[in-house]
Amino acid sequence: MTPLEFDARHLWHPYSNVLNPGAMHLISEAEGVWLTRDDGVRMIDAMSSWWCAVHGHRHPAITGAMQTQLDRMPHVMFGGITHAPAIDLGRKMIEFLPGDLNRIFYCDSGSVAIEVALKMAVQYQVAQGHSDRVQFATIRGGYHGDTWKAMSVCDPDNGMHGLFRGALPIQNFLPRPPIRFGEGWTNDPTLNGLGALEELLDTKSRQIAALILEPVVQGAGGLFFYHPTWLKKAHEMCEAHGVLLIFDEIATGFGRTGELFAMHHAGIVPDILCVGKALTGGHISMAATVTTETVARGIGESAASVLMHGPTYMANPLACAAAMASLDQLSQRDWQADVGSIADQMQHELEPARNIPGVADVRVLGAIGVIEMDAWVDPSVAHTRAPQSGVWLRPFAHNIYCMPPYVISPDELSSVTAAMVALARVM
Ligand SMILES: *Cc1c(COP(=O)(O)O)cnc(C)c1O
Question: What number does the ligand 1 atom closest to the CA of 112 have?
Fold first, then answer.
């Protein structure tokens, strides 16, 4: 059996048919924006490997920090033991985070960070004497991960709700904020989508622990960009009703939308924040759930004072070292200028796609470029074209999109946008 034959016969791939996973590229090396196949074919990773590798692959400062840590202590448990990589990273994260988001729970993946956030919210509410506040509210079009509770707050139509109907707890879904990023705001609650939130809070807020959403950019739910003022108003309404606000910035955190965090577009700070993906610059899995002094105290001072969660590999030192080095890169580089010029160039180079038949919309925010098609896009077409175009794209649903590493050069980015436009033409 060749390696690819073995892979096809024995290995599951994400969101794939185990018997027919489709064509597969055998990648043997990744450096900067480039993926290299075992036969030497090179492709630009326009996905930043699922939105993580913001500084490019195998960044010497990050691999160097990991190597140093590897020689000293790849892992120890975090129960009753602590270590410099966790502490240094904590200090650095608090420097990066706004408001009093300063109580950090390290997780091993984004979905786990969401589970922890949801647990924190319920535990805080129960500690406040609100034992009925165990439900969640969210907006349609969201994606928060693949574990059970995270899945329950993903979009009920395009997520996995259909398949697992009956096994998922019912949550409270609000319409997706109708006013897009960059459009004019109106205070009319029937037009700005806040009427539905108001109604929900007026009738049911005593059963709701928290509102959870991806601020400004909904990622895997359809790459939809909505108006930050919706968040600002929702924040005020939640506060008035004792409902916590959870921001899932696993996709948007660390500069992707042009601000360090997407919440900065709205100028607000949630009660609980989840980060992941780009935290380690795409070098190793790590995420975190961060909350405020108020929520942490509410839990810690209560009768059930212990947060019952603790991943085996919590605060893995290698992951902490990678995250620390990745955040250092962000501090040292003018990432905002990089993301700004990526946005300008994508705007310019993707705009012509608007005239291609079958294209529904073209939009750019920060280092996210999207060509939305009328019809579902078959990812295998992109997949087959990648070696010739030299650009690795993995469309999903109706979207041909890219989220390139911030270090991509203008020429490389032109190859990416050209591949996207060419793909839109053949779909
Ligand atoms: C990717 C993602 C998650 C899940 O993170 P994993 O590390 O894949 O578990 C959750 N929320 C958002 C917004 C994401 O983009």
Answer: 9
Evaluate: CB of 247 within 6 angstroms of ligand 1. no
Task: Report whether residue 159 contacts ligand 1, using a CB cutoff of 6 Å.
Answer: no
Tell me if 63-332 shares its fold with 334-401.
Answer: no
Distance 111 CA to ligand 1 centre (A): 6
Side chain identity at 167, as an amino acid letter? A
Neighbours of 409 (CB within 10 A): 11
Report the Cα 141 to chain-centroid distance in Å: 14
Q: Is 71 exposed, middle or buried (0-12, 13-18, 19+ CB in 10 A)?
A: exposed
Task: Write the residue with the smallest CA distance to atom 5 of ligand 1.
Answer: 110
pTM attached to this predicted model: 0.98
State which H helix or E strand residue 327 sits in.
helix 317-332
Q: What is the b/e burial string over 301-335, where b = at least 16 CB atoms within 10 angstroms of the residue's CB? A: eeeeeebeeebebbbbbbbbbbbbbbbebbeeeeb
CATH 3.40.50.1470 fits 334-401, yes or no: no
Over residues 87-106, the pLDDT tens digits come to 999 999 999 999 999 999 99
Q: What is the second-level CATH architecture of the domain 63-332?
A: 3-Layer(aba) Sandwich (3.40)
The residue ranges of every structural domain in the chain are: 63-332, 334-401
Q: How far is CA 317 from CA 78, 104, 158, 173, in A?
A: 10, 15, 37, 38
Q: Is the CB of 276 under 6 A from ligand 1?
A: yes
Number of residues in the chain: 427
- Ligand 1 atom with the smallest distance to the CA of 251 is 15
Q: How confident is the model over 210-241, as pLDDT tens digits?
A: 999 999 999 999 999 999 999 999 999 999 99
